[in-house]
Specification:
binds zinc ion, Helix Hairpins, single chain
């Protein structure tokens, strides 16, 4: 990188010493060649400009990637927080259900006692009946109350089963809950670390980006920023990949590809407007 910046420094002086281009970003391929005394100088200059632009793009893309990663992490934490809130609600609901079932169970136990009291009273009355009809009527009442008790006992057994199931669900939810709380703790710490870490990296890259921008003339830099802002993935400078624009993948005619390779002027994709760089040149740049 340092080497590349040093290289750019030379270029900057070369490029700014004399303006020899009608337009740095031009869509038309056949250039209306400006009157130039030293064409070699132009070639070097354009190549250096492209190198500077491509280098800037690499740095800016790294910044973009960091921001994307950091953007996703808080979402993971948020998801966990939501899941925990959901589990807490589920546990609360189960606890309330258990309470309500226990209340119903208690009611049945009371009604069983009431039935038993009645049965006892009927049995006592049976000792003092005047005729069989009265005795049979009381027997029927006793049978009815006995059935009521059996029914209540059946309901109590069902309630007990429901409570057991609910309590198992509560245990399970609480087990998951404690796991998720641990996960959240870990993720929060991770997030804090990564934020600190990436902020440092991002700041360093932003400094690098600014340094790199000094090697690019104002007009070109403005164009770069404008294209980058409008382009998806923030790519303003792309290479030619398999005879196509590396940004929009539209094919580039052979003549245009040749012009890009010759580096006599800065050429943009006629479809997406991105600045096109020869793959070989791009591969020779290390950031
Ligand atoms: Zn394109």
């Amino acid at each position: 990188m340092a080497k590349s910046i040093a290289k750019q420094a030379e270029t900057k002086t070369a490029a700014t010493s004399k303006t020899v281009f009608n337009s740095d970003v031009e869509k038309s391929v056949p250039a209306s060649q400006p009157s130039v005394q030293e064409p070699e100088k132009i070639e070097i200059s354009i190549e250096k400009k492209l190198i500077a632009l491509f280098s800037l793009q690499q740095i800016d893309s790294q910044i973009d990637r960091i921001r994307i990663i950091r953007g996703e992490l808080p979402l993971e934490v948020e998801d966990l927080e939501d899941e925990i809130a959901g589990l807490e609600t589920r546990v609360d609901n189960h606890i309330q259900e258990v309470d309500s079932i226990e209340k119903q169970m208690h009611d049945r136990q009371i009604s069983i006692k009431d039935c038993q009291t009645l049965i006892k009273r009927y049995e006592e009355q049976q000792n003092n009946v005047r005729n069989n009809r009265e005795y049979d009527a009381l027997t029927k009442e006793i049978e009815f109350q006995t059935l009521e008790i059996q029914l209540a006992e059946k309901r109590i057994r069902e309630f007990n089963a429901q409570i057991t199931t609910r309590k198992e669900e509560i245990d399970e939810a609480q087990r998951i809950l404690s796991e998720r709380r641990n996960d959240l703790e870990v993720k929060r710490n991770e997030l804090a670390d990564i934020v600190t870490e990436t902020e440092l990296e991002e700041k360093a890259l932003m400094r690098k980006s600014e340094e790199q921008q000094h090697f690019i003339e104002e007009r070109l830099l403005t164009a770069y920023k404008r294209i980058r802002k409008n382009a998806r993935n923030g790519l303003a400078v792309v290479t030619v990949e398999r005879d196509a624009c590396g940004g929009c993948f539209n094919s580039i005619p052979p003549q245009r590809q040749l012009d890009i390779r010759l580096q006599k002027k800065i050429i943009v994709c006629e479809y997406c407007g991105r600045i096109l760089v020869d793959k070989e040149l791009a591969d020779s740049i290390s950031i």
